[in-house]
Structure formats: C-alpha cells, structure tokens
Description:
alpha+beta; 16 helices; 20% strand; BirA Bifunctional Protein, domain 2; 2 domains; eight-stranded mixed β-sheet; elongated; binds adenosine-5'-triphosphate; Rossmann fold; binds magnesium ion; 440 residues
Amino acid sequence: xxxxxxxxxxxxxxxxxxxxxxxxxxxxxxxxxxxxxxxxxxxxxxxxxxxxxxxxxxxxxxxxxxxxxxxxxxxxxxxxxxxxxxxxxxxxxxxxxxxxxxxxxxxxxxxxxxxxxxxxxxxxxxxxxxxxxxxxxxxxxxxxxxxxxxxxxxxxxxxxxxxxxxxxxxxxxxxxxxxxxxxxxxxxxxxxxxxxxxxxxxxxxxxxxxxxxxxxxxxxxxxxxxxxxxxxxxxxxxxxxxxxxxxxxxxxxxxxxxxxxxxxxxxxxxxxxxxxxxxxxxxxxxxxxxxxxxxxxxxxxxxxxxxxxxxxxxxxxxxxxxxxxxxxxxxxxxxxxxxxxxxxxxxxxxxxxxxxxxxxxxxxxxxxxxxxxxxxxxxxxxxxxxxxxxxxxxxxxxxxxxxxxxxxxxxxxxxxxxxxxxxxxxxxxxxxxxxxxxxx
Length: 440
Ligand code: ATP
Ligand code: MG
C-alpha cells in the first residue's frame, strides 16, 4: 500500500499555497507597518524549554508534546508554540542589552506541532503567525499589539470577527482569586471531570477553561476575577479598555476567559470568528501579557506581550466569509510556438521575457494553436505572443493584448532588445507604441 501523510497533517498544493502566500504577504506588510521584525528559531528545542516556559500543567505540555530522545539521549521536542522559543532566543542572544531598541518587537511565522485529535481547525502540524513585544509594560503596547492582530483580519476583508478581552491581574490579585475559586469549586469536587479535579489545586484557573459540559455548568456561577483585582491591576485593565475605545476597536469582556498557557498575567485576549458557516472551534488568535516569562527562561526581569494566530483557522474563516483572494501569480505572457522549427525561438522568447522581469509560459507538447490559446486563457495571460514558421522566417512575432484583443506584428529584434518597453507600450498606449517602433 502506498505510504500516506501522517494523521493531522496537510499537503499544501499549488492553488492553495497561492492563497497562503497572499495571506502571508499581507501579514508581513502589516508587521512592517507596525515595525515588528521577523525572528526564525529552530523547529525543535529542548523539552525543558516548553515544560518550563509553557507550564507543566498546560494541555500542551502534559498531553500534546511531540517529544523524543535524540541519539545522544537528549530530551527534545518539536515546538508546540512560538513564544517560549522566542523568549529563549531573546535571552540567549542578549537582546535585552542596551544596544537594542526598546521595546523589542518581533514576529514569527511557521509550523507548530501538537499531538491532538484532528478535526476541523485542529491539526497535528499547524501554522502560527505570532508577534511578541519585550520591555514595555505600557498598556498602549497591549492595545497596539491587539490592534495589529485585528488589522491583519481587517485587511484580509474578514467582517465577522470579535475581540474578547479579560485580565488575570498581577500575582497578588490572582492569588486572591485563586483562593476564592478553590473555595467555590471544592464543594463541587465530586461532580468535576477528572482533569478538573487534578487541576483544582494545581491550577484552578484552568478549570474555567474546561470543555467538559458539566464543568462548564459549574463554572458558570464561579466568582469573577474582576472582583479580585487590586488597585494596580484594576487601573491597568481600565487603561487597556480606554485605549481600545480611543482607537474605536470594539471589544467584549469575558471574565471567565483564561488561556491554556500558564505564563500570562494582566491582559489576555482572543479574536474569534462569529461567521455563521464557521466550524465549532472559533478562536483564530489568542495572546496576552506575560511579565514573568523572560525571567522564568533565565533572563532579566522583562515585561512581554504577544499573540499566536492560527493560519489554518484564518484560512477557514476566509472561506466561511467567501472572501476572494487575489491571484498574485497571474501570467504576463504566454508564447504560442507553432511547428517544431519554432522550438528554439520559443524558448529564447520566454527566457528573454523572464529576464526582463515578467512571467512567461509556453507550450512544450507541440500542440495546435487552439489548444495553446486555451491554455493561455486558463492561465490568465495578459499577452499572447505567437510565432509560427512564417513569422520566424520574417524575424517577427504576433503580439496580442488579451484584454483589448488588439494585435500587432513586432520584430524579434525589438522584443529581444527592449521587451519591457514593448510590453508597456503595447499594453497601455497604441499610438505611443506605433511611434516608438516606426522609428526603426
Ligand atoms: P484551543 O483552545 O483551540 O486548543 P489553544 O488555547 O490551544 O487553542 P493557543 O495555544 O493559544 O491555542 O494557540 C493560538 C492559536 O493557534 C489558536 O487560537 C489557534 O488558532 C491555533 N491553534 C492552536 N492549536 C491548534 C491546532 N492543533 N491546530 C490548528 N490551529 C491551532
Ligand atoms: Mg489547544
């Protein structure tokens, strides 16, 4: 039997990869606007980086890691998320040093690996675009970074998205809340799912995140973190809300929202799709503030803020909203060669066109003129250049602009000498074109 790709992975085929490239280009453009710079880290790291950085009790570390021992018995893992590795690189390369701009703003894009049960929008190899900001605890950083994520969705034309925010407060607030939450949950211990029973004392906030229906029912009446914020945390959250309002970015507050990763404090957020035909899993992007993480990974105390955006889910959202993705690799020129004698000239033509910075395609199967024009049409060629035996003998080609249907004989000499001029004149202004070539 033929070998198949691993469960929970995908082959990105041409046609589809074109759509991804468009999305990636928009994302990179917006990252430039916000002055985030790309960082690329290894796809595998020490297992310990994630167990420390993401947290032992998180689903990611406790259940979903693709970890392995290498040939020298080192415990390694395929990266399940981007932040821990970026923080590691930030510390290891001493990017906190005085010679680097503060805040230090980076983004990443690439595959992540989690051993999960595959379903719509949930894969074992998936792709994230993420952004991280180091060295600012100004709430404007939180809001700017959330705005950046929203901008990507907006630029792509998504309409049915919403921003949901919450705060986890600082350590003092969270400790107070944690105690209140344990007190609330303990009487329900026997009704809780096994996972939640385990988490009740280790990490009770995670019980709020449980997907178990009975757990959900119980936590619906749980106390709210918003009632346990100390003054610093309440003020911080207020500033975030005010700044979002100043930018006129609509948001909702969900005081039961927590994040699966253990390292967050203060602001956390999710961006969800509420498109009708979108699947059951609606979170496209999630992130927040992580003021303790850089220290946890061995660096100096440095505040941080970031998010991870799932690109598969983003593509699903674009599909759900039926957003047309512009074709960036439309063909400039198709060269129709007729008769075997034109084989050399046709090859020289496509190469010349490509060297002039245009895209070009030709026929290789010695097909009839009709079949070649059909292909040119299918590829969306803007121009078709035809060369047959007669044209070859006369040292010319037929140059046809597909949109207008106008065609003209052009000497091969001119094509080889000035293809870009020929192309631009011919496709824009016939008069100027004629003047230019009548000089010869
Ligand atoms: P979920 O609750 O859906 O499992 P999560 O809390 O594990 O999400 P994060 O770790 O915050 O997700 O990752 C950020 C984003 O990455 C998610 O919002 C989602 O878009 C994407 N993502 C996470 N896990 C997967 C996966 N297995 N397959 C596809 N996309 C994923
Ligand atoms: Mg998950």
